[in-house]
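Consider the tokenized backbone below.
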């Protein structure tokens, strides 16, 4: 099979410190040749600036971009005349070389409409701490002049969902404690179009680094964290993962049938879906997620498909949440709805049922994860490689956790049985199963505890992960 690796990106923009009625602008271009000795060369700061996308332990030292005698500076000094006094806005130094590593990468295409924006700066960003950042973002080819967010201390930001198949421009402006500003370059990226015919072979590259795993009680958008007899979404903890690839879409009927026809996979236990009697093997549903497969069926398919494997629970959650925040849903903290995912909303009466069966993979681009993975919430639950232990987060390792060595589905009982973790919720109740932090386990065949230990049913599918 031919696969396409898609790189996840993100980035950032800039803002004007304040607005003053404009009666006139005086552009003063000051060319300073440091070789003349008229202006002393600034001493580069000694602190190390670490990219938010890199592992803190592995981040390389920034390059030496100290000003040289050949470097000139251009200062734009906007003057505002207000009667007898002349007032000046803070100097804005045009120093694009001091801003680097935009995410999305400059000129990147195929980006998730829920991409995060991130950037880094060099050690030569000579502004007094604390430094804050303003982000400007606009669409099409226009220069970014619309203020997206102001006063950020972190070098990343999660904007609201963007339009699909749209070119965006953005920029960052850094402001020091003394009011001086430095403006970064204009960066561009394009969001991916809605795919009527999804490329089911597409894979997403997830870079190495840290992320926050678990449920965040401090997030006001979060459903009350489920830490009860059966569920263990806490404690919130930091996890480092090596880089990996993961399927953009859930594995489809058509893909799985190729493995069955090749003699490498076992046919699904049943051929129907929830409401369709003729589902698996029907070309009309070739791009719909495969059902009635066990964790072991999923493992066999992934191994057959270019030596893949099931993702760990941590890999699944990072691909759904992204590297920076503690979002409730793959798209952020905006409310859930049938425009974002295929699920049943049991938070209202009567229940709001979107489809009451599976949909074609990738049908909800507004619900994509920051990295661009589709259907990480809703459609079908997904098997992961970890056994389910309700206490696992209390003792899981911080680096590349591989899951517990036993199953424990109840806090008040000793370990028993063999249960594997499923993630992401499905088209069926309950709505909160589809949250990024929710942990569940396979325990249904046609009914509760039927088809043990395989638990093959019409709500669980999978996707594969791969070494880069």
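A designed sequence for it:
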């Amino acid at each position: 099979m031919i696969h396409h690796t898609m790189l996840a990106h993100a980035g950032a923009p800039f803002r004007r410190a304040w607005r003053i009625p404009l009666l006139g602008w005086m552009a003063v271009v000051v060319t300073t040749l440091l070789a003349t000795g008229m202006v002393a060369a600034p001493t580069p700061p000694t602190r190390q600036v670490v990219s938010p996308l890199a592992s803190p332990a592995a981040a390389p030292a920034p390059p030496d971009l100290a000003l040289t005698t050949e470097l000139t500076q251009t200062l734009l000094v906007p003057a505002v005349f207000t009667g007898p006094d002349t007032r000046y806005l803070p100097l804005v130094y045009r120093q694009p070389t001091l801003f680097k590593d935009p995410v999305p990468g400059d000129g990147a295409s195929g980006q998730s409409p829920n991409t995060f924006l991130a950037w880094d700066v060099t050690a030569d960003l000579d502004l007094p701490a604390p430094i804050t950042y303003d982000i400007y973002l606009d669409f099409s080819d226009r220069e970014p002049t619309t203020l997206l967010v102001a006063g950020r201390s972190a070098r990343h930001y999660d904007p609201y969902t963007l339009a699909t198949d749209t070119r965006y421009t953005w920029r960052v402006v850094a402001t020091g404690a003394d009011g001086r500003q430095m403006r970064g370059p204009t960066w561009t990226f394009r969001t991916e179009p809605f795919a009527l015919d999804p490329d089911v072979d597409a894979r997403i590259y997830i870079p190495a680094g840290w992320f926050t795993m678990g449920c965040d009680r401090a997030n006001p958008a979060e459903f009350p964290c489920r830490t009860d007899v059966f569920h263990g979404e806490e404690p919130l903890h930091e996890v480092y993962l090596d880089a990996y690839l993961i399927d953009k879409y859930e594995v489809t009927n058509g893909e799985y049938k190729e493995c069955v026809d090749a003699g490498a996979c076992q046919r699904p236990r049943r051929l129907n879906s929830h409401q369709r009697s003729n589902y698996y093997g029907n070309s009309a549903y070739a791009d719909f997620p495969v059902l009635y497969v066990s964790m072991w069926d999923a493992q066999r398919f992934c191994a057959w498909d270019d030596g893949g494997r099931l993702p760990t629970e941590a890999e699944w959650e990072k691909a759904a949440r992204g590297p920076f925040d503690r979002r409730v849903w793959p798209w952020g903290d905006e409310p859930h709805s049938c425009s974002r995912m295929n699920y049943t909303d049991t938070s209202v009466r009567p229940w709001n049922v979107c489809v009451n069966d599976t949909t074609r993979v990738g049908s909800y681009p507004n619900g994509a994860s920051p990295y661009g993975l589709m259907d990480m919430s809703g459609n079908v639950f997904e098997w992961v490689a970890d056994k389910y232990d309700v206490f696992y987060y209390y003792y899981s390792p911080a680096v590349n956790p591989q899951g517990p060595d036993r199953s424990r589905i109840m806090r008040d009982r000793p370990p028993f049985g063999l249960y594997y973790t499923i993630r992401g919720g499905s088209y069926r109740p309950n709505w909160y199963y589809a949250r990024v932090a929710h942990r569940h386990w396979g325990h249904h065949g046609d009914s509760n505890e039927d088809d043990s230990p395989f638990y093959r049913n019409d709500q669980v599918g999978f996707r594969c992960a791969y070494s880069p």
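DSSP finds three helices and 25 strands in the chain.
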